[in-house]
Predict the 3D structure of the following.
Amino acid sequence: MNVADIAGRLPLPEAARRRLPVPTEQIAVVRLEGVITPAGSGGGPMRRGGITLEGLESTLTKAFELSGLKAVALAISSPGGAPTQSALVADRIRGLAAEHEVPVIAFCEDVAASGGYWLACAADEIVAHPTSLVGSIGVVSGGFGLHEAIGKYGIERRLHTAGENKARLDPFQPERAEDVAWLRGELDELHKLFTGWVRERRGDRLTGDEQTVFSGEVWTGARAKELGLIDGLGTLRGVLGARYPDAKITPIGSKGSFVRAALGLGAAATGRDQTVPAMLGALEDRAAWARFGL
């Protein structure tokens, strides 16, 4: 490996990088892995990664400012998660791509479903392995009903609100039909936004009928190609190596984020008072992956 190769891979400040030799052409690779979590939801050793705009901002900026940049590749393995963060990350990717006039290629790995597929649609081209799980263009809401459990142990729920709808879907109260109807309306509205985004980004490349494509179903990469959800089959290194034979493939990441993840540190500390929320969050993450057999 020569000096240019080493310089191209080092996490150097841009000012210092400009003073060193770098490869003439580079492909930046950004890994989007884990459940897409609400901003400020924290992390910890019990949770399996997480994607937020705040956590990715620095990485995305570095990727698009890489010297000799020919393209940005997104390596995606996500079962989805928070719709707002999905949209924010996707919008940021599109903004940077337009600013730097660089193509973006998404590579679906184990799974790019729900919010994970929303992220993939931020790319100009989507590639998946034949065995990847792709799609799940739908919206889901889950929770727990604990009113019988607390009654069993003689616990009385005391909740006081100003505003008749302030405590909708309280897990410690019996579920109300009007609350479920409200939630259904919210889910339908989010689904329309999701399908609108897919139509905008995929356009005439969608070949399957909408009732099928937007049913919330998930498909293998091979079937997703038939439906027009992706553009081709292959692997990141295989496709990039053939298309850009003279370019260096350069992973971009935040060293600080890696260290924090390795130590089990999230955006918020996980102490004794956060143990139960962290456990519930970990269970929700586990359920998100389990829906796809992962």
About this structure: The first strand starts at residue 26 and ends at 33. The CA atoms of residues 208 and 227 lie 5 Å apart. The domain at 3-136+217-289 is CATH 3.90.226.10 (2-enoyl-CoA Hydratase; Chain A, domain 1).
